[in-house]
């Protein structure tokens, strides 16, 4: 059984979200996070995908000694949050802007350049979707009971 105990060490580099266990599976736990209670004091609230939502359902893989209704804390390394930000927002933005600049420099019409630069997102997100299992292996969440 996985469990992380509070060791008294400061949580530098860790993102925490409190939630309530909804369901327990054989290999995972489903946790409901309410943004009003989980995100109000979090320093990563502005860049977190969970922030701004009323309720978010998170699946945490692993076996934990918890029961439905238990209050738990979902823990993720802050560096993983930055990696998600990079993959989800910064790489696509950089790709769109780069393609747009190149096409405008090649004197392609503005409408065509704009549409083609946005079109670069289709293969990018398709590749990301194709490798989603590999990406999900990198983004591991754990529970603190």
Name the features:
5 helices; 2 domains; 24% strand; alpha+beta; OB fold (Dihydrolipoamide Acetyltransferase, E2P); 5-stranded antiparallel sheet; disordered N terminus
Short description:
With 145 residues, this protein is α+β, with helices and mostly antiparallel strands.
Corresponding CATH architecture of the largest domain: Beta Barrel
Number of helices: 5
Portion in beta strands = 15-25%
Cα(first) to Cα(last) distance is: 11 Å
Class by SSE composition: alpha+beta
Taking strands numbered 1, 2, ... along the chain, how are they ordered across the largest sheet? Answer: 3-2-1-4-5
Return residue spans where pLDDT drops below 50 for at least 5 consecutive residues.
1-10
CATH top-level class of the largest domain: Mainly Beta
For the biggest sheet, the summary is:
5 strands, antiparallel
Integer count of domains: 2
Instruction: Please state the average pLDDT score.
Output: 80
Q: How many E strands?
A: 5
Note the overall shape: elongated
The radius of gyration computed from the alpha-carbon positions, rounded to a whole number of angstroms, is 19 Å
- Fraction of helical residues: 40-55%
Q: What is the third-level CATH name, the topology of the largest domain?
A: OB fold (Dihydrolipoamide Acetyltransferase, E2P)
Series of H and E elements? EEHEEHHHHE
């Amino acid at each position: 059984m996985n469990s992380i105990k509070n060791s008294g060490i400061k949580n530098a580099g860790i993102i925490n979200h409190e939630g309530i266990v909804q369901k327990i599976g054989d290999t995972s736990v489903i946790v409901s996070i309410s943004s009003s209670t989980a995100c109000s004091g979090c320093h990563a609230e502005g860049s977190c995908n969970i922030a701004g939502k009323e309720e978010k359902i998170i699946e945490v893989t692993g076996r934990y000694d918890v029961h439905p209704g238990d209050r738990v804390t979902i823990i993720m390394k802050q560096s993983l949050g930055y990696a998600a930000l990079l993959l989800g927002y910064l790489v696509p933005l950089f790709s769109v802007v780069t393609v747009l600049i190149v096409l405008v420099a090649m004197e392609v019409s503005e409408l065509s350049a704009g549409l083609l630069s946005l079109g670069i997102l289709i293969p990018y997100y398709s590749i990301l979707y194709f490798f989603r299992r590999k990406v999900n292996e990198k983004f591991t969440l754990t529970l603190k009971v």
